[in-house]
Design goal:
Blueprint lengths: L2 H6 L7 H13 L10 H6 L22 H33 L11 E5 L11 E10 L4 E6 L6 E5 L3 E3 L12
Antiparallel strand pairs: 1-2, 1-5, 2-3, 3-4
């Protein structure tokens, strides 16, 4: 459940659907972090009029013959600006993601642990194994086989496996 909906809902969270219009309105009238624009403005070409905004007492309506062309030009420029913002932010997100991403390399025969995707509780086992890499299908895709249960094979990618290192027998002090 979205945190905004949860915050507005009652204690038992039974009226979340009643709160949905308020959350959608909030989303549509707030600057989006990726586009740096208000979604309402991107759709209608103007900022939304909120109940607490100051409004003129006298409303005058005049027909601008070039209104449609001006609106289309404005929306086109807004679309270009939003596209540029999205591309720039995607590059920033990628750089941030790549800076924290490890790029391990595996060989046939390496021992690995496989992430348990179905864990739901705090004390569930997070990794299963050990598995041995028996085949590489792509740059980041491998077939692994359980070391003890040889009929248990899986196709995995590098984002769900971690290397497993075997300890070398320690040598005595006199060796």
């Amino acid at each position: 459940m979205d945190p905004k909906i949860a915050a507005l809902s009652n204690f038992n969270k039974t009226d979340w659907d009643d709160q949905l219009p308020f959350v959608i309105f909030n989303y549509n009238t707030t600057i989006h972090s990726t586009t740096n624009q208000v979604p309402f403005k991107m759709i209608f070409g103007r900022n939304p009029m909120l109940p607490f905004d100051c409004q003129d007492q006298i409303v005058s309506l005049h027909q601008d013959p070039d209104y449609i062309q001006k609106l289309n030009d404005y929306l086109s420029s807004l679309t270009r600006e939003v596209r540029d913002n999205i591309i720039n932010n995607q590059a920033k997100y990628k750089t941030r993601y790549d800076s924290n991403r490890r790029n391990p390399s595996y060989e046939i025969g390496d021992l690995v642990l496989v992430k348990n995707i179905g864990s739901r509780y705090k004390f569930d086992i997070r990794f299963e194994g050990p598995f041995r890499i028996i085949h590489q299908q792509g740059p980041k895709t491998f077939v692994v086989e359980h070391v003890k249960k040889l009929t248990l094979r899986r196709q995995v990618t590098t984002d769900v496996i971690i290397p497993l290192y075997q300890r070398q027998p320690s040598r005595g002090l006199g060796s």
